[in-house]
Specification:
With 473 residues, the chain is an alpha/beta fold. Strands 6, 7, 8, 9, 10, 11, 12 and 13 form an eight-stranded mixed sheet that branches. A five-stranded mixed sheet has the order 2-3-4-1-5. Strand 6, helix 12 and strand 7 form a beta-alpha-beta unit. Helix 4 crosses helix 7 and helix 6 packs across helix 7. The longest helix has 25 residues. It is globular, with a radius of gyration of 26 Å. It starts with a helix and ends in a 7-residue tail after the last helix.
Length: 473
C-alpha cells in the first residue's frame, strides 16, 4: 500500500508540473485542466497547481539562487517549481525515488536561499514576499449562469432541487451570500439567469454542467452581455472573446437568433472557446482567429453590426477569490507597473475607437476586471473626448449601487464598478456607449435602416425648402 501511495504522489507531481506548463502557455485554466485530468484526487492536484502558480516567482528566484537548474539540467522548470513548493511551503515531498533524492540533495540550500530572500525583503513569512494581489484570500460565492440556449431558469432550478439542493430566499447583501449552507442556493437579485451557491460547491461533474445547461461564471462577468442586451436577430461582435462565456451569454440574450462574430487572435484560446461554445449550443456564434483591430469596418459582412461587446486584455487587478490568477509575463518585474498599465490603456482605448467606426453600431459595452482608474474611467473619458460627439455614455445597470470613482470625470455615475468585499464578486468595471443619433428606446434590428430612411427624408426636405421664398426680417 505504501509503495502504491508513493507512486501515486510521484504521478501527482508529474501531472501538476504538466498542468503548470500548460497554464503558463495560456492553453487553458488551472481548474479546467485539473478537473479534466485522469488523476483521482483532483482537489489535491488543483490545490498543488494553484499554490505553485501563486508562489512561482518566489520559487523561481530561490531555485536560481541555489543553482538548482545548473545541477539538475534534466529536470523541467515546472517540475522543479512543484517539488520546490511542496518542500518549502507544502507538506514535504511525499514520494520516493528520484524526486525525493533530488530534494534531499538540494533541500538545505533551498531553505537557506529562501531565508535570505525574506531577510532582504524584510518579510516575516514567505507569503509576505508575494505581491498584494496574490496575498489576497477573498472568498466568493459560486455563481452559476443558467444557459437559456439549452434550458429555462425554472427548469434548471427544478433539476437542481431534484439533485438535493434547497432553493432559499435571496440574502439582502453580497457578503450574506457567503453564509449560504452547503446544499442551499438562491436566485441572484440583479440577473434573473444567475444562481448563487456556497463557495466550495463543485459542479465539474454535475450533468447540468457537462451538457452545457449551466455555465460557471462570476456575477460581474455576466454584466457586459446583460447591459448590452442586444435584441433578437441583431448582428453583434465580441471583440476579445476567449474563453467565450460572455460570447455565449450574448447569444443567449438573443435566444440563439441573429449572429455573433467572436474574435480572438490566439489559436489555442480559440480552440478552447470553440469547444465551450459547442457545449453551450451557441450555434449563432462564428469564431474568427484574428485581431478585432484588424477587422474591416467598411466590409459588407459587418455593415449591419449594431452591438459590440469589448472585454479587452487588462491588468486583472480585480480578480480575487479564485485561483486561476491572471499570469503576468515572466520578464515583468511589476505586473501593475505604470508603463504596463499605460500600454494596456492605449490598447483598450484603441479597441473602443475601432468599435465606434462600424457604420451601424448603436451600442458598445466596455469592461475590464481591473480596479485601476487608468484602465477604466480614464479610458472611457478619452474615448468620449475623441469620438467627435458621435457617442454618449448611458447609465449602465441603474439598479446597481456602486458607480465610477466620483473624482474621475463628470459622468462617473453612469459606469459600474464592483467591490469584492462589498459585492461578493470580482472587481469589475463596465461602461455603456450609445450612438447619439439613436433614440434610446429604438433598440430593434431595423433601427439602423430607419435611421438611413430618415436621413434621406431630411435631405429631400432640405432640397424642398431651398425652393421656398425666404421672408426678410
Amino acid at each position: 500500500f505504501l509503495h502504491r501511495l508513493l507512486l501515486g504522489m510521484a504521478s501527482l507531481y508529474s501531472e501538476a508540473a504538466a498542468i503548470v506548463d500548460r497554464v503558463l502557455q495560456h492553453q487553458s485554466t488551472a481548474k479546467s485542466l485539473c478537473y479534466g485530468s485522469a488523476v483521482t484526487d483532483k482537489r489535491k492536484l488543483y490545490a498543488l497547481v494553484c499554490e505553485t502558480l501563486r508562489y512561482r516567482q518566489v520559487l523561481l528566484q530561490t531555485l536560481q539562487a541555489a543553482d538548482f537548474f545548473k545541477a539538475e539540467k534534466k529536470m523541467s522548470q515546472s517540475l522543479a517549481l512543484v517539488l520546490a513548493y511542496e518542500h518549502l511551503e507544502g507538506r514535504g515531498v511525499q514520494c520516493g525515488g528520484h524526486f525525493r533524492q533530488t530534494l534531499q540533495k538540494h533541500g538545505h540550500r533551498l531553505q537557506s536561499e529562501l531565508v535570505k530572500l525574506r531577510v532582504k525583503a524584510g518579510a516575516r513569512t514567505t507569503r509576505d514576499l508575494l505581491p498584494e494581489h496574490l496575498r489576497q484570500d477573498v472568498i466568493l460565492p459560486r455563481y452559476v449562469r443558467v444557459n437559456t440556449l439549452k434550458i429555462t431558469v425554472d427548469a434548471a432550478v427544478a433539476a437542481l432541487q431534484q439533485q438535493g439542493f434547497d432553493l432559499v430566499a435571496t440574502p439582502a447583501t453580497g457578503p450574506d451570500l457567503l453564509q449560504l449552507p452547503a446544499t442551499a442556493f438562491c436566485r441572484d437579485s440583479h440577473l434573473p439567469e444567475l444562481l448563487v451557491f456556497a463557495p466550495q460547491t463543485d459542479f465539474h461533474q454535475n450533468p447540468l454542467y457537462l451538457n452545457g445547461s449551466i455555465i460557471l461564471q462570476d456575477k460581474a462577468s455576466c454584466f457586459p452581455a446583460a447591459i448590452l442586451n442586444p435584441p433578437q436577430s441583431s448582428h453583434c461582435i465580441d471583440g476579445c472573446a476567449a474563453p467565450g462565456n460572455k460570447t455565449s451569454h450574448v447569444a443567449a440574450c438573443m435566444a440563439g437568433t441573429g449572429r455573433v462574430d467572436a474574435f480572438d487572435i490566439d489559436p489555442r484560446r480559440l480552440k478552447t472557446m470553440d469547444r465551450m461554445l459547442a457545449r453551450a449550443g451557441a450555434t449563432s456564434v462564428h469564431t474568427r482567429c484574428a485581431s478585432f483591430l484588424d477587422s474591416d469596418v467598411d466590409s459588407a459582412e459587418f455593415a449591419d453590426v449594431t452591438h459590440i461587446l469589448l472585454d479587452p486584455s487588462c491588468s486583472g487587478s480585480g480578480i480575487v477569490g479564485r485561483k486561476d490568477w491572471v499570469l503576468e509575463d515572466e520578464e515583468e518585474d511589476e505586473p501593475h507597473s505604470e508603463d504596463r498599465l499605460k500600454s494596456l490603456a492605449e490598447f483598450q482605448l484603441a479597441c473602443i475607437q475601432h468599435a465606434m467606426k462600424f457604420p451601424a453600431v448603436r451600442a458598445i459595452t466596455y469592461s475590464t476586471c481591473s480596479v485601476h482608474r487608468i484602465e477604466n474611467e480614464d479610458v472611457v473619458q478619452a474615448a468620449l473626448a475623441q469620438c467627435g460627439g458621435r457617442f454618449r455614455l448611458h447609465s449602465a445597470l441603474p439598479a446597481w449601487p456602486r458607480r465610477g470613482l466620483p473624482d474621475s470625470f463628470s459622468e462617473a455615475e453612469k459606469v459600474v464598478r464592483t467591490d469584492p468585499k462589498l459585492d461578493a464578486t470580482i472587481g469589475f468595471f463596465v461602461a455603456l456607449f450609445r450612438r447619439v443619433e439613436d433614440d434610446d428606446n429604438a433598440d430593434t434590428p431595423n433601427a439602423a435602416s430607419r435611421k438611413r430612411k430618415n436621413k434621406n427624408k431630411n435631405k429631400k426636405k432640405k432640397r424642398k425648402n431651398k425652393t421656398q421664398p425666404v421672408e426678410s426680417c
